[in-house]
Amino acid sequence: MPSYAIGVDVGGTSIKAAVVSRDGRLVQLWRVPTPQGPDAVNEAIVALVRQVHAEVASGVVSDEPPVGEGGTVLPEDVAVPVGVDIPSVIDPRDGVARYSTNIGWRNTPLREILESQLERRVFVDHDNRTGAYAEMRWGTAEPTSIYLAVGTGISAIFLFHGEAVVADPWAGEVGQMSIPDPDGGPGNVLMERAASAAGMVARFQRLRPGVLPFRAGAKELHELVEDGDEVATEVWESGIRILAAEIARLTYFVGPIPVIVGGGLAQAGSAFFTPLGKALDELSLEKIPLRAASLGSHSQVLGAAARAFDLADA
Predict the structure, then answer these.
(1) Whose CA is closest to 39, among 113, 96, 147?
(2) Hey, how many other C-beta atoms are within 10 angstroms of the C-beta on 259?
(3) What does the pLDDT look like over 238-268, one tens digit per residue?
(4) What are the tens digits of pLDDT across the range 29-54?
(5) Which CATH superfamily is domain 145-292 in?
(6) Looking at residue 102, what DSSP letter applies?
(7) CA distances, 293 to each of 7, 56, 143, 144 (Å)
(8) Which residue spans adopt a coiled-coil conformation according to this UniProt entry (predicted)?
(9) Are the CB atoms for 284 and 172 separated by under 8 Å?
(10) Residue 287 per-residue DSSP state
(11) Beta-carbon neighbour count of residue 54 at 10 Å?
């Protein structure tokens, strides 16, 4: 069995590739800017994978594990298949990118395109599903659990006996649910515009323009909460209540299984998890095990590599 695999994480601003060891260590990381347009992105993925293989072949990629002897990563040590995660509605069974706002894919046979260009098998899936899979394999998730990604958007992945349940390519897009505007506006808003990290920051900026810098995130918003800003506190607490209600709904449907939360809001630590746990306790009949994701911003590329291992081992 190969000791290493290549994972690719396609994001809105950058594309990352990594050589990952079988025990989940990120051995080396490459990063290039994400170009404009779906065809250009396809070409960039292919070029980056070829670059990684070329550098492995030239003997410049080395592994230095924390325990034991390291050495040069040899081409024969690397799995032939490649794993790719993308920010798109996709069915991993056919590899067709149905819809991506960031990249522009529309019913694009991405797996077929990449396999034709790279002349190797490719696994393609939604970025948050690969993140959930990595957390299950090397992090805090269990084979049967819920992974909630709360960053720019909100998505929920139901892991059942080690696999994400995907009845339809749109599975998990809970952030697209319509809910009453928590700030009292007319009509409804998308959940992710009210309770994601980006959504809560945008809400505060609408209510108190000019207080936060343009590119502020959850960290800056919570600093205002700690400083006693009443508007920031209401936005923060109402967003957490919305997330707690969604977690409660999910666990009432599948049972009180562990819930792992990753993404930008999870980086706030106890300032996020303590009120989330309290709100969840008030809504649930049984105690829901609530955990922080442990793999950070590299979870998606690690999960993509894990899927490459799966293809190689099959």
Answers:
(1) 113
(2) 21
(3) 999 999 999 999 999 999 999 999 988 888 8
(4) 999 999 999 999 999 999 999 999 99
(5) ATPase, nucleotide binding domain (3.30.420.40)
(6) T
(7) 19, 30, 14, 15
(8) none
(9) no
(10) P
(11) 10
Tokens 């008030």 found at: 282
- Domain limits of the chain? 4-139, 145-292
For domain 4-139, give the CATH number. 3.30.420.40
Structure confidence at residue 154 (pLDDT): 93
- Inter-residue contact 110 to 97 (CB < 8 Å): yes
Q: What is the dihedral of CA 8, 12, 13, 19, to 10 degrees?
A: -10
Eight-state DSSP code of residue 34: P
**Neighbour count for residue 123 (Cβ, 10 Å):** 23
DSSP H or E stretch at residue 155: strand 154-160
CA–CA separation, 180 vs 185, rounded Å?
8
Give the tokens for residue 104.
């522009």
Q: pTM for this one? A: 0.90
Distance CA 128, CA 283 (A): 26
Q: Which pair of structure tokens corresponds to residue 296? A: 């950070």
